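Good morning C.,

I know you're traveling, so I'll keep this short. The sequence:
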Amino acid sequence: MPRTVYFVRHGQTDWNAEGRLQGQADTDLNDTGRAQATRNGELLRGLVGDPAAFDFVSSPLRRTRETMERIRVAIGMAPDGYRLDPRLVEVHFGDWQEHTFAELEASDSGCFARREEDKWNFVPPGEGAESYAILTERIRPVLEEMERDTICVTHGGIIRSIFRLTDTLSPAECAALIVPQDRVLRLRDGRLEWL
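The tokens, ready to paste straight into the viewer:
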């Protein structure tokens, strides 16, 4: 394990604001999200010391790439020069992607309640769909392979999985966790802290 990893959720998108499930759909930041990404970069500038000593890795989706690029500029680095890891994409919501829960309930009454019975292990319908438990196993090797201090831009589901992989929260607590888009999560010495 590296000494320090800073995890940042991508900034807000219009779909976040609407409560629309994005999953692996490729959406863009809105103006609020761009401002959040820049502010998180400014915070990191004061935390990382020498940014050239850090590895920078991002999910390949547009909203995470733009967040990473804005962070790098705020830190004082060129926007490029980071790597992409497809294992860092968001949990796949299957047929539920691109829909709000109100829309889903209108077509499948009770689907939200069924999910809440065991949100950590629930797999939505549709090809490629994942539970948070499946997602956690997908990203376990990513965390294990991090050998340097790292800044990682990713998604809410991934951050929920980080809380599980570090044994910080129970599966139910992880599934219910609200993951902010305007804060940075630091993993250091096996402990997580919101900054």
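Safe travels,
E.
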